[in-house]
Amino acid sequence: MYSKQFVVIGLGIFGSSMARTLQSLGNDVLAIDKNESLVQEIADEVTQAVVLDATDENALKSIGINNFDVAVITIGEDIQSSIMVTILVKELGVKYIIAKAKNDLHGKVLRKIGVDRVVLPEKELAVRVAHNLVSSNILDYIEFSSDYTIMEIQVPNKWVGKLIKDIRLRTKYGINVIAIKRSEKVIISPLGEETLLKNDIIISIIQSEDLNKIEKLISK
């Protein structure tokens, strides 16, 4: 697998978590913050950690910012700095930029100046928790894009012991099964003849517009 080079700018709770996760997935990660204690805290867990003011164009040039595949800008609270850093990173040649926004308006500004993906952590977490609360069978919910959602579904009792094809998951519910997690085993692209067992977890992709309908059907 090709490992990418990420630069994570801003090492608050969200940024440091992002940096650690990207590193654990086998990527090269440069973590940046102007707060020395935050940099020291993560130094042993990423490829490299540097104390640096990302609003300084020359400082960004000195680390070869243009050589990174992806920049993750997680300066969410200081909106002015977030926008300034984003503009600099864009102008210095990073091709793909992900940025954390404090609110919807901040997110709109970031998109206007060329951010490829805007993340609203609190809002996205709230949406996931809300969907999980609506249906006890929905274990996790990730918005894959504006059109598609990935869900982890605990197999309802009414499906236990039945074949996937007999439940008509795709035609009746709009659920496209990617895999089934069965204890420590993962069944990739299961066939219609696969029997669902108690405690199975279905990993599926659905159209986002069908989410509410599916929740109601599963909860019945």
Question: Describe it for me?
Answer:
The chain has helices at 13-24, 36-42, 57-62, 79-91, 104-112, 121-134, 164-167, 169-173, 211-219; strands at residues 5-9, 28-33, 48-51, 70-73, 96-100, 117-119, 138-143, 148-154, 176-182, 185-188, 201-207. By secondary structure, it is an alpha/beta fold. The protein folds into two domains: 5-119, Rossmann fold; 124-219, Regulator of K+ conductance, C-terminal domain (Alpha-Beta Plaits). Helix 5 (104-112) links the parallel strand 5 (96-100) and strand 6. It starts with a strand and ends with a helix. The mean pLDDT is 85. InterPro entries: NAD(P)-bd_dom_sf, RCK_C, RCK_C_sf, RCK_N, Trk_Ktr_HKT_K-transport. This is Potassium transporter Trk. It comes from Clostridium isatidis. Residues 136-220 form the RCK C-terminal domain.
Summarize the SSE layout with pairings.
Blueprint: E1 5-9, H1 13-24, E2 28-33, H2 36-42, E3 48-51, H3 57-62, E4 70-73, H4 79-91, E5 96-100, H5 104-112, E6 117-119, H6 121-134, E7 138-143, E8 148-154, H7 164-167, H8 169-173, E9 176-182, E10 185-188, E11 201-207, H9 211-219
Parallel strand pairs: 1-2, 1-4, 2-3, 4-5, 5-6
Antiparallel strand pairs: 7-8, 8-11, 9-10, 9-11
